[in-house]
Amino acid sequence: MNIFVRFANETNFLPNSFMTKAYDDRFFFVSEGQGKIIFEGEEHPLSPNTLCYYPSGTSYQPISSKEAPMRFITVNFDFERNFEEMTKTMPPVKVTDFISDKILYKDISSREGIFRHRFVIENASAYRNLFCEFIQVYKSNTDYGKRIAESILQTLCYKLLNKENESYDELYLKIKKYIDSNYKNIRNNKDISNVFCYHDYYLNKIFKNNSGITIHKYIIDMRLQDAAQLISSTQLPIYDIAFDVGFTSVAHFSTAFKSKYSLTPSDFRKDNLKKTSNLI
Q: What is the pTM of this model?
């Protein structure tokens, strides 16, 4: 890795009101305000300390909130200095005007770790100081300011890679422990991503490689086990149990419960009562 920065700025100005694609790689770090960014139809909320990375050729559109406009640091860069002769800013273009042959890096699969795909880290406060230092040095216009700024950005990239390379087993255990304590309240994988500062796809891959099932299935199984225990040991209404263990729909709960236990929640309770009465 030998970072080359083509352009960087801290601003609140978003020039385009349509989906665009860029020919080089991008970082987008939110320092203030609220908004959202759309990646190829997938929408992500933006708030202070959110870090986005999107490789060349990614379609994207950041949108700022009118009530709390974003201030952000934007960086256009290359991981290697293969194109450093191209010093002029390469502005993104409308998706329909994008020319694939002009893309600087066509083989994203050769990238290191998490930089093989776009990611959004919603709780990236650990990197805020580095981004602030980077932009201050970059804008200083000193003789060596740009190269020092590039070394800061390179340090940041290595920190992201180092965090990713944390022991898979150790990270899996941390994820599992967090789910075991919070499975009732986890809405989706992005909630876990925000806690561990990793892309949700990456966390799910680690979890499935270690457990054999996805994070979503593990959470559902935890909720169903909890529900089965409550149905067996209490007279709480099925409706209340469904919401108590974390389901947002009774219909979804009933379908999932029957799939796991081959009985509806009501029949499961009746069957359990029969078994209990036969023991008396």
A: 0.61
